[in-house]
Amino acid sequence: MTWLRALRRTARSGLRVERPRLEPLVALRAAAGVAIVVGLALWLWSPPVAASSAFGAFAAGVATFQRSWRPRPLLALASGAGLAVSTFLGYLAASHVVLFVLLLAVWSFGAGMAWALGPTTGMVASLTIAVMLVTVTLPTSVLSALHHAGLVALGALVQAALIVLFPVRRWGAQRDALADAFAAEADYARRLRYEPVAPFDADALMAARQAAELTPRQARRRPEELHGQRTLAERIRPVLASLADPTVGAAAEGPERERAREVLAVAASVLDAVAHSIRTGGPLELPERADALLSADAPGAELTGAARRSATRLVALLSAAVERAEGSGPSDATGTAHLLRPSVGELLPTAVRTVRRQVRWDSPVLRHALRVSVVAAAGYVLGAALPLGHGYWAPMASVMVMRPDFSQTYERGVARFAGSLVGVALASAITQTAHPGTYALAGLAVLSIGLMYLLMRSGYVVAQACVGAYVVFLLGMGGTQLEQTVRDRVLLTLLGGLLAMLAYAVFPAWETPRLRDRLAEWTEATCGYVAAVMDAHADPARRRPGAVRGALLDLRAAGAAWDQAVARADAEPVRHRGVSRSAVRDADAALSAVGRVGLLMEAHQPAKDAPPVPEAARFAAVLREATGAAAADVRRRRAPDWSALHAELARWPSDPAGDRVVRRGAELLADTLDELTEALRPRSAGRRHPAEGPGRPAAR
């Protein structure tokens, strides 16, 4: 992709406006926190102090809207602590330009490295840089640094207190995540009716698992209908796939296929009803045909063999999900305990190790931290040198749009400038026409930030328009000259955005050259999952219950990293290095099909008393050895060799221990891995493009 096309594409993405589900009560609560802080500061102190403290309440409110399963009060308090420290240090160094620039560079580097801990931590860290830049410019003395830092922390404390005193939809995030998982499976069941190998996006299941991790206090207070449901959702998915797949499930045509479609349709309606009950916390309402299926002794009377077993298992799992939603089942219907989330103190050593692993030259996080550090310091110096005034707008615009990847940095740069221009223009027109007083400006600032909280998920350009108006009203309340603010902020915001974009162009961290590493990791995780399923068939009596589940989680993590890498590389203005776009597409389809093989075999795991299948153990061992060599070949830009799998299959008897699932799964696996080899074979070596597979039937 050329630079011009990449810039045009990112500009369109940044200016896109969506229509998300609004949460007016949550937005009202966050805006009330800002209003309380501003009102108290105006009553007890002065407008400049009110403006300073309002930034703390605003930033803490923004932190609570970020994607995180931690309790919202904890997010507000954590962000308030970081904001208070950054404000205090900024005030101490503000009177010495050189010292402040050095502090800004060091603090920005640390905030950039915080992205290694996740996007929520990185976003909160970026807010601390912005607050440090803005608050130290307000009229005050160095001796009041501690006072102003305390006021910033007070804003976060007020936000946390409001969340505790006025909760909105208790456990709403966890309910939504679990409900989304069941709704995704309902949609999957409907698509399987006419597309037996339809793909399944496991993002909803991954989010549900993250939401199921609780602190001990949360585990004691969790609603009854959230107990055990996530594991049921995990177990329903492979059974749906095995019932619909014509290879190991219902026949491709005829009465058996029609009955399978009917069972899938009813399953979809049951899953939808369970999702609605979990989301709303209301009673479960099942359609009549669902009651008939769940109460039938032989739900798959027209089905035979593996399809009949899948239908019977599906009905049992759906019945358990219905019982859990109605609250009539045991407290842990699946026999699996809830996941305990480690405390912040327990996470500290892990966080240090995570950040330390990113200290290498090719790390995107380290490069992002270096870019933020240099741009923040350079932007501050340039803004102060230019005869525009309010030079902090340039570095603040830079640090708020910069992200570790190219597409988000450029999207946010365009959106921030466009949104800020609209917000500043509207706010300026209001102030210059109506000439509002101090309290009227405070009210307009609270209204602007309330709209931002309400519409912030509509798009970055909308949020920045509201923030631009908020800052103009707030600084006007603090005594800043509005005419100068409008002119300077537009020009300096443009300068800051250009600095951020230029920094990424000069010192990039492209994802495209790392695609082969991501593909190798996904290959290892996918084949490791299939090998774990094979081991479960090899010796059912001694299988470890968590082995398959752990391998599946590794597969999902590697698959998500691959999808993210492909999406980022697709938007980058660089040519492929070692793997073309067509090879990416074909390898993606082949590995997704490999994962589906493991998925189908997992759905037919034998009982504990089933006879062992020694051939499966040997095949799993050969698969692991071949996978290690194949991953190395992928990284070295070679086509992997799977001949060892075919050689092992040739030594099998015609019917290994009477287990047709194992033989059929091994044959499908070997053939599908050959498609991966063809996808990665260079064209000069006679590459034959594999036929287009069934979409993306991922096992993630």
From TrEMBL:
<feature type="domain" description="Integral membrane protein YccS N-terminal">
    <location>
        <begin position="82"/>
        <end position="190"/>
    </location>
</feature>
<dbReference type="InterPro" id="IPR049453">
    <property type="entry name" value="Memb_transporter_dom"/>
</dbReference>
<feature type="transmembrane region" description="Helical">
    <location>
        <begin position="21"/>
        <end position="43"/>
    </location>
</feature>
<feature type="transmembrane region" description="Helical">
    <location>
        <begin position="413"/>
        <end position="431"/>
    </location>
</feature>
<dbReference type="InterPro" id="IPR032692">
    <property type="entry name" value="YccS_N"/>
</dbReference>
<feature type="region of interest" description="Disordered">
    <location>
        <begin position="677"/>
        <end position="700"/>
    </location>
</feature>
<feature type="transmembrane region" description="Helical">
    <location>
        <begin position="438"/>
        <end position="455"/>
    </location>
</feature>
<keyword id="KW-0812">Transmembrane</keyword>
<feature type="transmembrane region" description="Helical">
    <location>
        <begin position="490"/>
        <end position="510"/>
    </location>
</feature>
<feature type="transmembrane region" description="Helical">
    <location>
        <begin position="149"/>
        <end position="168"/>
    </location>
</feature>
<feature type="domain" description="Integral membrane bound transporter">
    <location>
        <begin position="380"/>
        <end position="502"/>
    </location>
</feature>
<protein>
    <submittedName>
        <fullName>FUSC family protein</fullName>
    </submittedName>
</protein>
<feature type="transmembrane region" description="Helical">
    <location>
        <begin position="461"/>
        <end position="478"/>
    </location>
</feature>
<feature type="transmembrane region" description="Helical">
    <location>
        <begin position="124"/>
        <end position="143"/>
    </location>
</feature>
<dbReference type="Pfam" id="PF12805">
    <property type="entry name" value="FUSC-like"/>
</dbReference>
<feature type="transmembrane region" description="Helical">
    <location>
        <begin position="369"/>
        <end position="393"/>
    </location>
</feature>
<keyword id="KW-0472">Membrane</keyword>
<dbReference type="Pfam" id="PF13515">
    <property type="entry name" value="FUSC_2"/>
</dbReference>
<keyword id="KW-1133">Transmembrane helix</keyword>
